Amino acid sequence: MIPKCKTGNCSKCDLKNTYCVKVAKDLFCLSCHKENKNKAQVKKSHDKHGSSVLEEWFESRHDEMTGICSHCGGKTEKDKSTYKCSVAHILPKVHFPSIATHPLNFVELCFYGNSCHTNFDNYYIEIDQLKCFEEIVAKFTIMYPFISDAEKRKIPDILLQELTKQ
After folding, report:
1. Are residues 112 and 136 in the same domain?
2. Among residues 71, 56, 151, 57, which one has the least CA distance to residue 107?
3. What is the model's pLDDT at position 145?
4. Same domain, yes or no: 72 and 134
5. 153 & 79 share domain
6. Domain with 31 in it
7. Is 30 exposed, middle or buried (0-12, 13-18, 19+ CB in 10 A)?
8. How many CB atoms lie within 10 A of CB 95?
9. How many domains does the chain have?
10. Would you state the pLDDT for residue 115?
C-alpha cells in the first residue's frame, strides 16, 4: 500500500508546511517517515535473545575497517561511537533485507570530509563512479545468489550488466 502524502507539519522534527505521510494520527515529513521505517526494520532483526543481528554485523565490519575511504582515500570514522557513519551498505538494507547483514554488503566510505557515504546513499555519486567499483562488483557477484527473487528486481542495472560479464 502506498502511503498518502499531504502538506502539513512534521510531528517528529516540527518541519513546517512540507509533504508529510500520515501514520495513525501523526504526520511525518518524508525524512522522518523513512527513518521510522528503518527503525521498524531494525527491530524486526532482533533475534530471540534480544541482541540485534544488525548490531553484531556492524561490530564485525568495524573490525575490518582500515580508516581509509575506498573512494577518495580520506579518513573514515573508526571511533567506537561513530564508525557506523563510514560503513556503507552496497545494496541498501531497507531494499535488500535478505543480504542486509551479509559480511560482504559494505564498503568503507568517509562520512565527514568529502561525505562519500552520504553522497553515495543520496545518489550524488553513482555506484559505477566509485573508485572502488571493482571491489563492489566482486562482492556483489558473491552475494547475488543470496538475494531473494523478489529483491532481485531492485538491483541496479549496472550491477546486473557486470554480472553478465562474469
Report:
1. yes
2. 71
3. 96
4. yes
5. yes
6. 1-44
7. middle
8. 11
9. 2
10. 95
* Integer CA distances (angstroms), 129 to 71, 75, 123, 165, in order: 9, 19, 10, 18
Summarised one tens digit per residue, pLDDT across range 126-147 is 999 999 999 999 999 999 999 9
Q: Is residue 49 part of a domain?
A: no
The sign of the CA dihedral 138, 143, 147, 149 is positive
Q: One-letter amino acid identity for 43?
A: K
AA letter at 155: I
Q: What's the predicted TM-score (pTM) here?
A: 0.69
pLDDT tens sequence across 10-64: 788 777 777 777 777 777 777 777 776 655 554 554 444 335 889 999 999 999 9
Q: What is the pLDDT of residues 143-166, one digit of tens each?
A: 999 999 999 999 999 999 999 987
Q: Residue 165: its pLDDT value, please?
A: 87
C-alpha 52/C-alpha 138 separation (Å) is: 27
Side-chain-facing half-sphere of 137: CA atoms under 13 Å? 17
For residue 25, is it within any domain?
yes
Element (H, E) at 35: helix 30-44
In a domain, 124, yes or no: yes
